[in-house]
Amino acid sequence: MAIINHEYKSKVVWSGGRDGDGTATAQGSGVEVPINVPVEFQGKGGGTNPEELLTSAIASCYSITFGIIAANRKLPIKSVETTATGVVEQNGAAFTYKSIVLKPVIYMEGEPSVEQLKQAEEIAHKADGYCIITNAVRGKVEITVEPTIAKG
To answer: What does pTM read for this prediction?
Structure first.
């Protein structure tokens, strides 16, 4: 099988210091978001920041990956709502991104069978292992998945 590399380009424009303003633009989609240093790091806040973006990237990747695996297994999934909490440890001037807890709520359509519920639970615990973004930080950031499977 041939190896294919995919590129994802981003452009960040920043003005100022800790109280500055900027934008991050995904070159492929054109989506632009305002960025600022968060208040807890003595910034003015108001925009998103790299810490939130990493948490969101991992939650998004997990949710999409779960959806793809579930669709391939023909499970009756209505939706996945993933709440994520990232923890950054501050030790003096040093900051370390320590962990992210993913709490997906997986809504299944109709009356899923016991086997379908079991498969959904299994996939929920394994989906992060197939996630590109999670795998990029594995070994540096602890990822925990605490799923809930809901009917209807």
So the answer is: 0.92
